[in-house]
C-alpha cells in the first residue's frame, strides 16, 4: 500500500483546522458514495465510461426484471460481484474502519454495494449500508426471511462462472476493451436453466437473489431505523464527512441537513468541485479536492495514525 506521507495533497491550513476539529469531535458521521470505490478502480454504476450503460443497469436492477429473467439478472450481478472482488479496499476504506475503532461516536452510512468497507474490516455495527450489498444474498420468496451476509463465493454457483478463455468475446478483458456489457445483444450469453441458479437452502423453494436495493424497492427498514436512532441519540453532531458522493439524492441529502441542524461542520472529499451537497458549504466547512484514497488517510491521520497494509477479509475468507 503506497504511503501518502511523502507529499501532502491537502493545503496545510485546511489540514490543521480540520484535524483540530476532528480531534475534539465525539459525534461524527461519514457518508460514502461511488467516488470512494472509483479510487479502488471500480467503475461506477452510472458514471461516464462505466462498463454498464445506465439504461441496461436500470433495466436489470428491478424486481420485475428478476421475475421475468432471473438468469440474466444473476449474470449481471455475478459479473458485478466478480468485478468488485477484483478491486481491493483502498487506504481510505482502512482509515475509516480505523476511525470507527478509535472514535466511539462515529457512524458510517454508505451508498456503496461493493463490499469494500466490510472487507476493510469496518466494524459492522458502525457501518450502515443504505443500498444493501452485492455480497449479501437473500431468498426471493416473500414469506421466507433467509439472508446470508458476506458471501464472497465467486462464482456463487458454477453456472454463473464467467468464461476465462481469451478468445471468448464474453471474457472480462474482452468486455472491458470494447466497453460492452453482457446485456449487449452482440454478446452471446449462455441460456441458464432455473435449476442452475442459486436456490434458498432454507425453504428450498425460492431462488436466492442479490441483497441490493433495486429500483422501486424500499431502503432497508432496519438500517434506516438504526440511523434515525443514532441521530435522535445525538444532542449535537460535530462533523459530517461527505466522501465520493454529491449527496444530492434522498436520503443522503437529508442526513447532511440533519447533521448540520445539530451543529455539524461539513467536510467534502471529492474529485469534482461541482459535486457539492445541495445546501452548499458554509464558512468553516472544508472542501478537499482530489482522490479520496489519498486524502482521507491524510486528513484522518491525527486520530488513526499511519495506515499500514491490512488484511482483506474477502481474501481471508
Ligand atoms: Zn427461502
From TrEMBL:
The active site is at residue 131. One of its GO terms (cellular component) is nucleus. Zn(2+) binds at residues 139, 144, 200, 203. This is DHS-like NAD/FAD-binding domain-containing protein. InterPro entries: DHS-like_NAD/FAD-binding_dom, NAD-dep_sirtuin_deacylases, Sirtuin, Sirtuin_cat_small_dom_sf, Sirtuin_class_III, Ssirtuin_cat_dom. GO terms for molecular function: histone deacetylase activity, NAD-dependent; metal ion binding; NAD+ binding; protein-malonyllysine demalonylase activity; protein-succinyllysine desuccinylase activity. The keyword Cytoplasm does not apply. Pfam families: SIR2. Keywords: Metal-binding, NAD, Transferase, Zinc. It comes from Zopfia rhizophila CBS 207.26. Residues 8-310 form the Deacetylase sirtuin-type domain. Belongs to the sirtuin family. Class I subfamily.
Amino acid at each position: 500500500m503506497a504511503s501518502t506521507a511523502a507529499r501532502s495533497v491537502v493545503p496545510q491550513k485546511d489540514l490543521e483546522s480540520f484535524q483540530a476539529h476532528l480531534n475534539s469531535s465525539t459525534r461524527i458521521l461519514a457518508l460514502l458514495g461511488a467516488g470512494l470505490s472509483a479510487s479502488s478502480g471500480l467503475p461506477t454504476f452510472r458514471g461516464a465510461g462505466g462498463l454498464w450503460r445506465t439504461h441496461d443497469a436500470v433495466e436489470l436492477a428491478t424486481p420485475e426484471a428478476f421475475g421475468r429473467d432471473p438468469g440474466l439478472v444473476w449474470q449481471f450481478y455475478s459479473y458485478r460481484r466478480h468485478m468488485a472482488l477484483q478491486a481491493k479496499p483502498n487506504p481510505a476504506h482502512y482509515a475509516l474502519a480505523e476511525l470507527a475503532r478509535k472514535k466511539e461516536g462515529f457512524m458510517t452510512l454508505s451508498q456503496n454495494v461493493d463490499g469494500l468497507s466490510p472487507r476493510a474490516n469496518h466494524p459492522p455495527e458502525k457501518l450502515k449500508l443504505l443500498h444493501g450489498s452485492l455480497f449479501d444474498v437473500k431468498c426471493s420468496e416473500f414469506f421466507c426471511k433467509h439472508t446470508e451476509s458476506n458471501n464472497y463465493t465467486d462464482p456463487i454457483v458454477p453456472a454463473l462462472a464467467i468464461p476465462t478463455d481469451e478468445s471468448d468475446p464474453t471474457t472480462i478483458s474482452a468486455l472491458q476493451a470494447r466497453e460492452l456489457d453482457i446485456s449487449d445483444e452482440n454478446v452471446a450469453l449462455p441460456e441458464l436453466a432455473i435449476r442452475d441458479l442459486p436456490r434458498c437452502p432454507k425453504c428450498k423453494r425460492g431462488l436466492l437473489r442479490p441483497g441490493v436495493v433495486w429500483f422501486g424497492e424500499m431502503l432497508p427498514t432496519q438500517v434506516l431505523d438504526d440511523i434515525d436512532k443514532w441521530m435522535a441519540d445525538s444532542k449535537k453532531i460535530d462533523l459530517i464527512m461527505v466522501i465520493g458522493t454529491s449527496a444530492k439524492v434522498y436520503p443522503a441529502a437529508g442526513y447532511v441537513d440533519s447533521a448540520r441542524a445539530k451543529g455539524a461542520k461539513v467536510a467534502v472529499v471529492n474529485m469534482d468541485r461541482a459535486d457539492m451537497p445541495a445546501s452548499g458549504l458554509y464558512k468553516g466547512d472544508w472542501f478537499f479536492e482530489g482522490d479520496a484514497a489519498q486524502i482521507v488517510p491524510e486528513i484522518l491521520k491525527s486520530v488513526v495514525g499511519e495506515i499500514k497494509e491490512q488484511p482483506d477479509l474477502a481474501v481471508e475468507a
